[in-house]
Amino acid sequence: MHEIILHYYDMSPYAEKVRLMFGLKGLPWRSVQIPIIMPKPDLTELTGGFRRTPVMQIGADIYCDTKACARALERLHPKPSLFPDGNPATVWGLSRWAETSFMMAVTVFLGTGGLFDEAFIEDRKKMAPGVDFSKAGEVVPAKLLQLRANLDLLEEQLADGRLFLLGNVPSLADLSAYHPHMFLKFHPTAKTLLESFERVQAWMQRVGTIGHGERTELASSDAIDIARNASPATIECDESTLPDGLAVGAPVVVVPEEPGSGIVSGTLLASDVQEIAIRRQSERAGELVVHFPREDYLVVATG
Ligand SMILES: N[C@@H](CCC(=O)N[C@@H](CS)C(=O)NCC(=O)O)C(=O)O
Predict the structure, then answer these.
(1) Burial (0-12, 13-18, 19+ Cβ within 10 Å), 202
(2) CATH classification at residue 102
(3) N or C: which end of the chain has fewer CB within 10 A?
């Protein structure tokens, strides 16, 4: 099997979620540092235009969005599981709710200023042209109150003394809830807020000790060579799960519903109920299969 490669920048909270997946599963992986703002030429060469962070690569298979990374890792390395007690809907649902803290925290940082430089802010403005960044300052107190509400619910969830959110072993829900709150430590007011939740603090410490598995560095150009010299993994076709009106081989675009993520075009491959897979040709990396979760991503015919 090809090595697992993660394309990300160190400050990315969502990248922390995937690094913890490697830690939980005890996996070795290669770390490729990408730019924090556009352009990201080596990354988009692989994804076909998707720019969000992180992106996971295994040979010529490219996984966009941490939800697609989680599903792929669980399929390829089932033990220890990201869903140790089953309850998949609970784990995914809890993950989604906990990650609402991410944009709250980003707004607090943008509204307060100081953490991000001008180039970063300009880049993110282009990503979300519908958002009025000048208003972020006005909503900082309200966002801190929303964060407090999320933290309070986590504290309540941990009130019976359990070690992790859904019991005494960690699940994907812990990793999803950890990364946006870890980020709060970089903001003085948010840090003080976080410190007022004792059980959450102790739980974060436990999640942090899961670690990142075994990381070694890799240059982005080497990751492209690895993709070019690999063939995408074969995907079993189950035609009944294809969306109405779309056939395998049809030209499609994948449209992320999170603004400014980047639209990717290719031809539809056998995809399953929870995953979209498309084939695309890259000039420098050859034939690739790019994977997305169904959640938050639309697949639309273009032919
Ligand atoms: N739903 C995505 C969200 C990822 C996300 O928003 N990541 C942030 C960084 S933590 C990002 O992409 N920022 C813009 C960028 O890096 O270009 C996922 O789960 O992977």
Answers:
(1) exposed
(2) 1.20.1050.10
(3) N
